[in-house]
Design brief:
Radius of gyration: 17 Å
Distance between the termini: 46 Å
Helix content: 10-25%
CATH class: Alpha Beta
Strand order of the largest sheet: 2-1-6-5-4-3
CATH topology: Nuclear Transport Factor 2, Chain: A
């Protein structure tokens, strides 16, 4: 089968998936996460998270609930100002041929202040998405942080 087409049970080819459109949609999600940081908007930040998703960090696997993550970020964002939340390199995005699964690798540099405290770090990670109800939903995130 060619890239971007799906086979049906009868062997007939269904309508092709516009993989470029799906890639752009995922990049738009990444841009929305960036805006959520600058606007300190926890609801926007988790808008495309699954109700429960898996986070892998520092050798630990944790199941996270969207509302718990939103609650954490409401507090984390309180009084914070983001000066930088920018791509160090362009995100790498791949979408499955049938358009139901995708992953995105990102590397961003973050600089924020909260009161008189400044925090600087790089985040690099991979996020896995499933297409649910016609929209992309994050189901896994593996992230690394490096202060700097």
């Amino acid at each position: 089968m060619g890239r971007g087409t799906r086979a049906t049970i009868s062997g007939m080819t269904a309508s092709p998936v516009d993989l470029e459109r799906e890639r752009v949609a995922l990049l738009e999600l990444h841009a929305s996460v960036r805006r959520a940081h600058f606007e300190t908007d926890a609801a926007r930040l988790v808008a495309n998270d699954a109700e429960e998703w898996v986070n892998i960090r520092d050798g630990t696997i944790t199941r996270r609930r969207r509302e718990d993550v939103a609650d954490f970020f409401r507090t984390y964002f309180e009084g914070a100002t983001y000066h930088e939340w920018d791509d160090v390199e362009p995100p790498i995005v791949r979408v499955s041929d049938d358009g139901t699964l995708a992953w995105m690798i990102v590397h961003v540099r973050v600089r924020r202040t909260k009161g008189d405290r400044e925090l600087r770090f790089d985040y690099a990670g991979i996020e896995t998405y499933e297409k649910r109800g016609g929209r992309w939903v994050k189901v896994v995130e593996v992230g690394t942080f490096q202060e700097g």
